[in-house]
Amino acid sequence: xxxxxxxxxxxxxxxxxxxxxxxxxxxxxxxxxxxxxxxxxxxxxxxxxxxxxxxxxxxxxxxxxxxxxxxxxxxxxxxxxxxxxxxxxxxxxxxxxxxxxxxxxxxxxxxxxxxxxxxxxxxxxxxxxxxxxxxxxxxxxxxxxxxxxxxxxxxxxxxxxxxxxxxxxxxxxxxxxxxxxxxxxxxxxxxxxxxx
Length: 196
Known about the structure:
There is one protein chain. With 196 residues, the protein is α+β, with helices and mostly antiparallel strands. The protein contains three helices and ten strands. A hairpin with a 5-residue loop joins strand 5 and strand 6 (116-117). The longest helix is centred in the N-terminal third of the chain and has 17 residues, at 7-23.
């Protein structure tokens, strides 16, 4: 009589191995304290990270197209110039603490070649736009029940015009700056790898 694993046993074994591999991912990444420069491993898009008392979660990053009916509401104003594409970073920012907090207002995209890109200044009438304002305890940006929260993307929007060649320079990270580290003589930063 030969002992052959059943399909169910093979499935369980594959699941155990996958969990073991995935649990090793992200080892060494700093959480919540802020990282300096690009030495620390970036967090992954879709995972909430605490940073300077506020929780940041990039829900989705995608290219925006003004010819698409949904995207017209996100991308009011000019299309990006020739050789550029507009990318929307949709993020939820929450104060999970007991005291009011001011979330970050300084963001940029950094590619693997250390090129940096600043977000567009969005129009005041853009209801999806990320607006760094003081968050009371338990409150989020976008506000629960708002149009931005109820939209398919469910997040507050930042738009970055990226050169087409920059999209090849992966990993591409969203850098968040908040506070100042006197020892490093630089702002405290946290990085989220974007799924571009």
